[in-house]
Amino acid sequence: MTDQVTCVICLGILYRPAVLPCKHVFCQECILSAVEKTAYQCPICRCRISNWLRKLKDQESLVNEDHENQLREMFPRYYHSKEVGLSPVLSKSEQRCLKDLTNTDHFETSASQGEVFSEYLKEVEKFRKLKVLEDQKNEEASLALAFQLLEEDRLSLSADRPFPDSSRQTLPSSCLSTRIVSPSQNRPTISRPNRTLLDYSIDSHRLSSKCESAGSSSSAQGQIARDEAFARKLQAKYSLPLRTPPTTRSKHRVLRSRRR
Questions:
Q1: Average pLDDT over residues 32-54
Q2: Backbone angles phi and psi of 248, in degrees to 5
Q3: CA atoms within 13 A on the CB side of 236
Q4: Do the Cβ atoms of 163 and 208 come closer than 8 Å?
Q5: Do residues 80 and 35 touch, judged by C-beta distance below 8 A?
Q6: 26 sits in which H/E element
Q7: Which positions, given as ranges, span the membrane (predicted)?
Q8: pTM for this structure?
Q9: Contact 163, 210 (CB under 8 A)
Q10: How many C-beta atoms lie closer than 10 Å to residue 53's C-beta?
Q11: Partners of 59 in the beta sheet?
Q12: Rounded CA gap, 9 and 1, in Å?
């Protein structure tokens, strides 16, 4: 009897009750606004009603007039308020009728002391956990994207290199006299440093330490530290080689030349 009196969407008395093919009853306005958000399915049993709605010539045919007349007789004040456009309020007799029909108490009860605050804390904790999971997913996606960019950079560098001489040995002797010019030889060679994201972050960190005396902001320091931590996570996750930054390479070369 509860489904025939109250709407499970608005939790109020059924106003203009509409019956679906699956025999579930809702307010006409509630079900028409809900099906667009539920992919034209019944909110209760997920029965598809798209074809059924398409065949309807008039939305007013959804309303069960006999059921509406019964509800209008039981809750006249409620229906009058809805038709006038006021906030519907049940009278005492209507409240008793609703209680007898549904066997539930619909009177408003005040919350106990601290109940609202404890519920708020639970929602905050739930939001915090979801935020942590979302940050982890975003970090995983960023690591995968950075690794993909590094691989693309490595492949582009290998494509710019000329073909080895061993490839000419497989050609016939008649073709050895002709000079083969690859497309890569026609364009100017671009010297690109074979650096990784970890090299960049370490260099930036060292440059920032030199600029501390010049009054660098704390926000820039924090961003550089985050970049370095992100690069180390990338190196640890994908086992990328930890290359020596260019500044340290030059120092090693100077030391070797002095030793010689």
A1: 85
A2: -75, -30
A3: 7
A4: no
A5: no
A6: strand 25-27
A7: none
A8: 0.37
A9: no
A10: 16
A11: none
A12: 16
Which tokens go with 223?
């961003």
Structure tokens at 26: 């809702």
Residue 204 CA to residue 211 CA, distance in Å, equals: 10
The separation between the first and the last C-alpha atoms of the chain, rounded to the nearest angstrom, is 98
Sign of CA dihedral 211, 214, 215, 217: negative
For 180, the 3-state DSSP assignment is coil
The pairing of strands 25-27 and 17-19 is: antiparallel
* 254 close to 167: Cβ distance less than 8 angstroms: no
Secondary-structure percent of the chain, ordered helix, strand, coil, rounded to 5 = 60, 5, 35
Q: Angle, nearest 10°, between helix axes 65-74 and 92-102?
A: 120
Q: Residues 67, 71, 72, CA angle at the centre, nearest 5°?
A: 115
Of the ranges 74-83, 133-142, 155-164, which one carries the lowest mean pLDDT score? 155-164
CA dihedral sign of residues 33, 38, 43, 45: positive
Residues 6+ apart with CB under 8 A from 67: 4, 14, 17, 19, 25
Query: What CA–CA distances, in Å, run from 32 to 50, 52, 87, 159?
Result: 11, 13, 21, 59
The values of phi and psi at residue 252, to 5°, are: -65, -40
Q: Tens digits of per-residue pLDDT, 147-178?
A: 788 777 777 776 665 555 444 445 455 544 44
> What count of other Cβ atoms lies within 10 Å of the Cβ of residue 7?
20
Instruction: Name residue 119's amino acid.
Output: E
